[in-house]
Each structure stands twice: as C-alpha cells, then as structure tokens.
Design a protein that fits this description.
The protein is an alpha/beta fold. It is built from twelve helices and twelve strands. The strands form two sheets. Strands 2-1-3-5-6-4 form a six-stranded mixed β-sheet. The protein has a six-stranded parallel β-sheet with strand order 9-8-7-10-11-12, sandwiched between helices.
Length: 285
C-alpha cells in the first residue's frame, strides 16, 4: 500500500518520518509513504491519478491508501472529494484524504492534534482564548477550542477584511468571534490561552507583549523555542510547541489510512524528534 503527503513547498515535511516509523513498528512491511510537491493547480489531476481504479482492492500492490495535505491544499481539496466528514465541513478544510470503496473521503485530524497537544502539556480547558492568524490552522484551532467548551474567542489578524473564511468557520461552529488587528494585542491577550498559528518568526515581534500570558500554544516546531515561547516560559507560563500537534494529527491519520488503532505514538514521536535534531545540527554544524 502507498500513502503520502502533498503540498507546496513539501521538502521540509516531517510526515514521512512519522508515518514510516508507524509502519515499521506496526509490521506493515508492504507500506510506503512519500512526499510529493503539489500546488492547487496540480491537485485535481493528481487526485484523479491516485484514486483507486475500478476493481482495485486495498491489498493490491501499488494501491493508494490515503494522503496527508498541507498548505495550500486543505481548503482547495474539499470540492474535489466524494465525501467529507462533518468536522472538515465545519472547519472548511481537510488535511487527510482516505481512499476506500473506489472513492475519496476527506477528514480533518488537525483538530484532534491540537486537543491532544494541549492535554499532553497539562493545559486546562481555557475559559478565554485568543488566536493569532486567520488561516486553516486558525480554523482548526477554533474547532478545538469549541470542543474544549469555549463559546467565544478573539482572532487577531493583519487585515480583518481577509478573515471572512475563518469568520464563517466560527459561525458554523456556533462560536462568537471578535476579529481585531494586532494593535489590539495587549488587550486581547488578557486570556487563559493564546494560540499562535503564525508562520515561523512572524510572532517574534510580539514576544515581549506575550510574556505574561498563562499559556501559549505556538504551532511552530522548529526552531524551538520560538522567541514568543521563550518569553512566556521565562514569565512562568506554560508553553506548547507545534510538534505535539503534528505528531497526534499524524497518529489519527495512520489510524484512518490503515484501519488499525494500535498506532505506536512513542515510536513516531522518537522518529520525529530525531529528525528535528538532525536538521538543527545540520544548520548549526
């Protein structure tokens, strides 16, 4: 069986290391996982190429079990799928495609990854939260916060006019969403939890202003700690890095693609951490 991750750029992805470690520990010798460069324009054709052929069964050599999707494909894939889970519809994005019964099925495991990362770090269910950034990960974050019991949140973005998709997600989730610009950061971070979904380095300028928040979840995993995470940690707050989210969303993907629940979380964790260390050493060596 074959599986893989699509995105652009994709060379940096840790997904191959996580999934391959799972296959090895689970004894899935016939399984492979690869990374493929794919942008929105190429996605429809590639999905047609990879979807099961008529009469192909899951055990057939070369058959595709599923795909992991990174940006910018999570939203673009939805109209191309045969079915989409209720959660992926709510969030407006699927990071997982599973091929079965001759059809393609979309799901979202990012929400689960966020919930598990927070739980592992011992972050209690927040009574208030602010999310930095308005992309697909921010949308998944809102769903995770809803699942943790929140009915409202604040979203900080550079341009509120471009946050329409995320506002629509909040409406589907039944959450009240206040959308503000980053100049309201000082007021908007007087909350139990701040989640930064910004790209690596983008939150560095806010580090000093985030220092007093009780808990920060920064979806960046390398380099770690980020300036914002270091500031919060120095201030006595709890920090959660993006690797936990990445790990646990991959765990759920392996479950969906293999149909098994005995997924070796610690083997996947060790493989991912080892690759992060290797990359860090290569940058500084």
């Amino acid at each position: 069986m074959r599986a893989g991750v699509l995105g652009s750029p994709i060379a940096h992805s840790l997904s191959p290391y996580l999934h391959r470690a799972a296959y090895q520990a689970m004894g899935l010798d016939g399984w492979s996982y690869e990374a493929r460069e794919c942008d929105e324009a190429r996605l429809p054709g590639l999905l047609r190429e990879l979807r099961p052929r008529r009469g192909e069964v899951p055990g057939d050599e070369g058959a595709w079990a599923g795909l992991s999707l990174t940006m910018p494909l999570k939203r673009a894939v939805l109209p191309l799928l045969d079915t989409v889970s209720d959660l992926a519809v709510e969030v407006g994005g699927a990071n997982t495609v599973v091929f079965r019964d001759g059809a393609s099925h979309g799901d979202n495991t990012d929400v689960y990854g966020i919930e598990r990362a927070l739980a592992e770090a011992g972050v209690p269910a927040p009574r208030s939260a602010t999310v930095l950034g308005g992309g697909a990960t921010a949308a998944s974050t809102l769903a995770a916060l809803r699942n943790l019991g929140l009915h409202s949140a604040t979203l900080l973005v550079r341009d509120p006019a471009r946050a329409g998709d995320t506002a629509g997600v909040a409406e589907r989730l039944g959450m009240a969403l206040a959308i503000e610009t980053f100049d309201k950061l000082d007021v908007s971070t007087r909350v139990d939890l701040v989640v930064s979904t910004l790209p690596s380095g983008a939150a560095d300028a806010f580090a000093a202003r985030l220092a007093r928040v009780p808990a920060l979840f920064d979806v960046v995993y390398s380099p770690w700690p980020t300036s914002a995470a270091a500031a919060v940690q120095a201030g006595g707050g709890t920090v959660v890095g993006g690797f936990g989210m990445l790990l646990h969303q991959a765990v759920r993907q392996v479950e969906l693609m293999t149909g098994r629940t005995d997924v070796p979380v610690e083997a996947m964790r060790a493989a991912g951490e080892a690759e992060i260390l290797r990359r860090s050493a290569s940058r500084t060596g």
